[in-house]
Amino acid sequence: MPFFRDEIYPRLVNMLGDPPPIREIRQKLIPMAEGKVLEIGAGSGANFVHYDATRVSKLYALEPNPGMIRLAQTQLHRTHLNIEFLDLPGERIPLEDDIMDTVVSTFTLCTIPGIGEAIQGLRRVLKPDGKLIFFELGRSPDPAVQRWQKRLEPLHRWLFQGLSLTRDIPALLMQGGFQISQIEMGYIAEFPKSSTYCWWGTAT
Ligand SMILES: C[S@@+](CC[C@H](N)C(=O)[O-])C[C@H]1O[C@@H](n2cnc3c(N)ncnc32)[C@H](O)[C@@H]1O
Q1: How far is CA 91 from CA 40, 112, 122, in A?
Q2: Contact status, residue 122 vs residue 179, Cβ threshold 8 Å
Q3: pTM recorded for the entire structure
Q4: Which of 112, 137, 196, 199 is the best mutation target for the ligand 1 pocket, counting ligand atoms within 8 Å of the beta carbon and taking the most?
Q5: What residues does ligand 1 touch, defined as CB less than 6 Å away?
Q6: What is the set of domains in the chain, with CATH numbers?
Q7: Cα(14) to centroid(ligand 1), Å
Q8: Per-residue confidence at 148, pLDDT binned at 50, 70, 90?
Q9: Using CA atoms, how far apart are residues 158 and 4, in angstroms rounded to an integer?
Q10: pLDDT band for position 190 (cuts 50, 70, 90)
Q11: What is the atom index within ligand 1 of the atom nearest the CA of 65?
Q12: What is the pLDDT of residue 64?
């Protein structure tokens, strides 16, 4: 349903994807980005204002959804960043090896269909001393919540175009060769627990 995917879904994410608890974590994490930065699934540009434009030489904002890119372009006046949009999926990052100082994923690794390829691609483009900044939603450690996550997964996958509630993102990053350097985790809201369990931090 291209109309839902390209018109409704971007507005839904734009409306619901940046409430105060999420914004506070973005404010803490995103200024750690420096040098050449790749953000995959940049969405409607919710992170743009949080980058430190004096430390980021260029931001490659990869985003395959044209409706998201349209919304992200409306954020450009709020930042001095040098931004280039790449309208391709994160499973096929069109950049050379070992060139990024930072890669960023916020709520994209929990959405992207080919998470294995995406993680490999992030590793490939990242310099050996570069870092990944992540903030992702996923599988709660609480079995009762996990049962709800399994029940609600199909609805979320449809409404949020692939969003999975049941991925263990830190485990997938480690399987993909990343080492977690800093991590925090927890429910970012009291309710519903099924769609608010997150991890955020950095990996190398
Ligand atoms: C939940 S939104 C998060 C948007 C934004 N990163 C944020 O923090 O608000 C997930 C994003 O992943 C993007 N996405 C979906 N499939 C993708 C793919 N194959 N490659 C890259 N991005 C993808 C969606 O278009 C959407 O912008």
Answers
A1: 10, 8, 9
A2: no
A3: 0.97
A4: 112
A5: 13, 17, 40-43, 46, 62-65, 68, 89-91, 106-108, 111-113, 160, 162-163
A6: 2-203 (3.40.50.150)
A7: 11
A8: very high
A9: 10
A10: confident
A11: 25
A12: 96
Measured in whole angstroms, the distance separating CA 55 from the mean position of its chain's CA atoms is 20
How does pLDDT run across 167-189, given as a tens digit for each residue? 999 999 999 999 999 999 999 98
Average pLDDT over residues 114-136: 97
As a three-state string, the secondary structure of the chain is: CHHHHHHHHHHHHHHHCCCHHHHHHHHHHHHHCCEEEEEECCCCCCCHHHCCCCCEEEEEEECCCHHHHHHHHCCHHHCCCCEEEECCCCCCCCCCCCCEEEEEEECCCCCCCCHHHHHHHHHHHEEEEEEEEEEEECCCCCHHHHHHHHHHHHHHHHHCCCCCCCCCHHHHHHHCCCCEEEEEEEECCCCCHHHCEEEEEEEC
9-35 average pLDDT score: 96
Nearest CA to ligand 1 atom 13: 41
Query: What mean pLDDT is reported for the chain?
Result: 96
Looking at the CA of residue 43, tell me the nearest atom of ligand 1: 27
